[in-house]
Structures are given as structure tokens and as C-alpha cells.
Amino acid sequence: MSRGIVLFHTTTSALRGEKALKKAGFLVKLIPTPRELSSDCGFVIEFHDLPLNQLQAALNEAGLEFEIHFLP
Amino acid sequence: MIYLDHAATSWPKPPEVSAAMHDFLERAGGNPGRSGHKLSIEAARVIFDTRDALADFFGVQDPTRVIFTLNATHALNLAIQGLLQPGQRVITGGMEHNAVMRPLRALQQRGVQVEVIPAESDGSLSPQKFAAALQTPARLVILNHASNVSGTIAPAEEIARLAHAAGAWVLVDAAQTAGSLPIHLPTMGADLLAFTGHKGLQGPPGTGGLVLADTFDTAQLSPLVRGGTGSRSEFETQPEDLPDRYESGTPNGVGIAGLKAGLDWVQQHGLQAIRAQEDELKQTLQQGLTRLAGVQVYGPTHPDQSVAIVSFTIQGKHVSEIGRRLDEEFDILCRVGLHCAPAAHRSLGTFPNGTVRLAIGPTTSPQDIASTLRAVERIINP
Ligand SMILES: Cc1ncc(COP(=O)(O)O)c(C=O)c1O
């Protein structure tokens, strides 16, 4: 199962990202930024097995800057 | 006790406000956006939800354009000091609060040109006079949406249209109107709008904000305060991301939680319903005072042209004496004097003594108004 992380620059964009993804019907969760990733924003969005292109589309539509990482 | 000082700060607050603040301290007490643990996420969520709700309330699409500040004064300083450079020209009206005039007078010392358009004796502003002043280029027009002295509502839409046609930005001081009059930034034509949380929005002191229109280019506005934002910490320069660019330091989360509850309360009761109720009381008060011998009431005669503020004087009596007697003998609380707005009192012809200001709120009752009228009558005819 692939565990993905969406990383943002600001707290507000992480929360906006969460809102956009929930609105698009995705099951996502805010979690503390994992050690492996360096981000200054204290928390990130975690997802499991979601269609990447649709996820990206929803975040782009919200006008957000983000990075997606996959963790083992 | 009769509280008629809602223009200074609304009181009592809806019970939901203190409940939300208590809840924030008990449950969501982390530092929002600094750490990643549950309490930090909860705190950030409360602030985010409030930002979102305020963006909706003011008609702004992008919630990151709601910048939290400590009050309207802080928001106005951010806008005024962040926009104006020496050599530029700014136009404002004759009904401004010192929250606008003092930063402007300080900038004037540093070479900003300040032009004040005189108001009429009822506190109203003439768009024609603004149009004439705008013949000379200006960077900014600042407008008090409603006077905290006479309640007079400014023709913001009309003046904003003229300002934009002349290439100037528009900053609106909505300290007296946010939560009292419907405000939709694109309709009003404000590029920046300063509001306070502790008056019409029924929130606690220590809350307020600057709302930036979706179309406003934030490169034009420098931050007032720089520092830690919890974002892009690898750089020692201020980030450009909104709202972080303008929000350094730990925010007033507990206050913002209360502000959300205040805003919810206003929306549940309905802005129009609250205004209609306050307006009726204002008219009763104005009419009752006008009938008393020796009383002069200031401000527009038509009720649609003012918010629920009534300013008056009594011939031969000092306003401080009236205020003291209302408080000590009748337990009626109001504010007398210049109300931090000497410019407005000059316009109304009440400088330097000032007026007695009675400011109605959503908890004011018809009985309160009747008792106040009786009290003023007793002060005139003991
Ligand atoms: C018209 C006006 N502008 C600005 C302010 C300043 O608001 P605050 O005290 O929240 O900074 C007030 C109220 O005091 C006001 O009435």
C-alpha cells in the first residue's frame, strides 16, 4: 500500500489543501511532518492509495503550491 | 445598568464567545503552525476556520487575504505604513479616527502629502469634492465607512469608483461597520479593508484584521512586522506567502476562536435583523432627544444614513458632567468627549468640547432607550 504525503510551505496552505481534498471526496488526514521529510510547516497531509492525477488536480484548482512524496 | 457604549466595544458578548475561548485554551492550546502535534493542528484549524468564515463574510475568494491583526488600529497602520512612500499623495475625509490621522500625520513629516476633504456638518462626505481632489494624482484614498461620532455612513462605493478611475487605491476603515452593515469588498470597491473584532462582530478585544481584495497586488504592501512565521525558516528574509508575509509571531488564537463565535452569532441572528432592531431604537432615541429643549443632536436626519450611534450636546452643560450624571445617578454607561476623532468633531462643529455619544447594540432594549430619555430629561429639568 502506498503512503503519500503532501507537503506545503505554510500552515494555511496545508489546511486549505486538506479542505480542497475533502471537498473532492478524498480521505486524507493531517499528521505531523514525518522525520524523513524536511518541511518547516509542522504538519502535512497524509493519503493512502489515491489517484495521483486527481489529487494534484484538486490541489491545483485550489491554487496551492505543494510537493508530493511517497514513503515506504 | 444600561450599556450604551457599543461603539467603543460591544458588551456583553454572546455567551458562545467566552465558551469558544475557554474551549480553545482547554482543548486547542498548541502553537498553530509551529509544531505538528495534535494541539498545534487543532489551534491552526480554529484560526483557519475563522479566516475562511471572514473571507466569505467580506466577499473575498482567497481566505489567505484575511490578515489577522490585534485591532483595527493595527490593520490601518499596516495598510497606511505599508503602502505610502515619501512624495506620494493620500486623500482622506474629514470624519477619520486618530487610528488613521496619527499614522498619516507621522508620514506627512516624512514627505507624504496628506489631503483631508472636509465633511459637511452632519458628517457626510461629498463625492464631488473627492472627484475634484482626485484631479491631482494620488496613491491612496482612505475612508471611514461610518463615523464613530455621528454614525454617518460614507458613500464608499461612489468614492471608490472615483478613486479607481483616477488610479488610486481605496482603504476602508470598517471599525464601526463590520458586523453592522453588509460589506462585500468587490461591490464596495475597497482594495483593503480594516476591521476590528470587538465591536459589531461581537468578538473579544485583541482581534481584528486587514482584508485584501482578490485583485490587490500584495507586492505593493510591505509588512509592518517581520519575524517567525513557521514557514520557509531556512531563509532570513520575510516569506511572500499569504498570510505569513503579514503575520509574524504567535497569533492571538484564543481571541480568534472567540471572534469566530461572535461572527457565527451575528450570522445566526442576521445582520439585517440586528440592524433593523438597532435602527428603530436609534430613531426613537434621536426623536426623543430632539424634542428636549436645549438638546442638539448631530448627524444625518435620515435613518438610512447612519449606524446606531447618537451624539448630542445640551446647551449650557459640559459633556463630562452629563456623562458623569448618567453614570452615577442613572447607571447609564456611554462615552463623552472627542472619541479619538478630533477631525470628526471639527467637521460637526463640536470641537474641542465633544459630544455625549450613545451607541446602541444588539442587547439594547426599548426600555433602555425610554429610561435614557427620561434620564436626559431629568438632567435638563432636575
Ligand atoms: C472609526 C474607527 N476607526 C478605528 C478604530 C480603532 O479600533 P480599535 O480600537 O479596534 O483599534 C475605532 C474604534 O475605536 C473607530 O471607531
UniProtKB/TrEMBL annotation, chain A:
The name of this protein is Putative Se/S carrier protein-like domain-containing protein
Superkingdom of this protein's organism:
Bacteria
Q: InterPro entries from the xrefs? A: Se/S_carrier-like
**Domain (Putative Se/S carrier protein-like): residue spans on this chain:** 4-67
Q: Taxonomic classification, please?
A: Bacteria, Bacillati, Chloroflexota, Anaerolineae, Anaerolineales
What is one Pfam family matched by this protein? Se_S_carrier
UniProtKB/TrEMBL annotation, chain B:
Region: Disordered, residue numbers: 226-248
**Pfam families found in the cross-reference section:** Aminotran_5
EC number(s) in its UniProt entry? 2.8.1.7
Q: Which cofactor does it need?
A: pyridoxal 5'-phosphate
Keyword Magnesium attached: no
For this UniProt record, give its keywords in alphabetical order, as a comma-separated list. Answer: Pyridoxal phosphate
List the catalytic activities from the record.
Answer: (sulfur carrier)-H + L-cysteine = (sulfur carrier)-SH + L-alanine
Q: Where is the Aminotransferase class V domain?
A: 2-369
Q: Does this entry carry the keyword Transport?
A: no
What GO molecular function annotation could you give as one example from this UniProt entry?
Answer: cysteine desulfurase activity
UniProt xrefs under InterPro entries: Aminotrans_V_dom, Cys_dSase-rel_unknwn_funct, Cysteine_dSase, PyrdxlP-dep_Trfase, PyrdxlP-dep_Trfase_major, PyrdxlP-dep_Trfase_small
Name the protein family: Belongs to the class-V pyridoxal-phosphate-dependent aminotransferase family. Csd subfamily.
Tell me the protein's name: cysteine desulfurase
Organism of this sequence: Levilinea saccharolytica
